[in-house]
Amino acid sequence: MPQSVRAGREGDVLAVVSLTGPTVSFHDAATDRHLGTTELAAEPHELCFDPVQRLLWCSTPYFSGNYHTNTGRRSDLTVLDADTRRVVEIVDLAPEHGPHGLALDAARGRLYVSVEGSADRPGGVVVIDTATRRPLGRIDTDAPVPHWFVLSPDGTTGYATNKEAPFVSVVDLGAGTLTAKIEVPGSEGLALSPDGARLYVAAPHAGLGAPGEQRPEPGIRVIDTGTLRVAGTLPTQDVVLPVHTTVDGTLLVGETRREPGPGGGQVPGHLTVFTADGHRRGGLEVGRLPLALTSSPDGRIGYVAAIGSSTVDIVDLTSLERLARLDVPRRGETGAHGMAYLPRAV
């Protein structure tokens, strides 16, 4: 890794989930050296780092498997000490189940966790006090499967994508209520611009539409958060699952690619990069089925976790060159999933 990009990262750590590990592995952000691995009880999905408590939160929605192909839904979160890398607590959310998306309001000490619905209630978002690690309540999203969740920069509004509903749910976090629905095809990942003015939503979701049905064109719906209307679409060649915005507003998009024809298998995916004003900068080939994105705090390095190849591509976001590729251990067909960048303690 070039010295100019490496500089200042000593002591920082990249944490990566392996779905079928089932583990969280830790890597030196300056040298990519493997620092250790923590084994978990079941198949983890997403990670969220709390820099105030120095804790790493991990969601595990299912006992095994994935959305629509699982052996049952779990109701707990795993909490790890970010520095010792040990599990410190399992937080039980029952009767809630299927926890997935994680969003942190560090200033207010609140963690928001998306959970799946059931026969007697819609999906929603559970609110957790990060100091006590205890649930405080839940906010309904009026959709069966809210998947990913993000917060406005001021911590007053939350947005949830929904695989099984044609809208993004908007919630008032102070009142704890659903306030609006923004019409989009069933959606995957989402991200906010740093100023909170634009919401980027990956839609349609990968499974939308039966064989032979007309399917909406893939792309990123750009939503004006002031009007709560779709202002435009950033087109992509293939279906997108994850999106991520860096500190300077650069938009990272993970495109999933398959061999042509019915039943075509996964081929290497693509990281597509847009400037903050929506212009396509370019991109590069990454691992199979990119499912998670993150970036360094200065926005100079991007990380692409691909569950199909169980790899993490580390990308210089200035030159759009791959700096390194991490191989994440797995015990099944799928591997690398959620990630978190952990700045060193100061």
TrEMBL record:
Name this polypeptide is given: YncE family protein
InterPro entries: Host-pathogen_enzymatic-act, N2O_reductase_N, WD40/YVTN_repeat-like_dom_sf
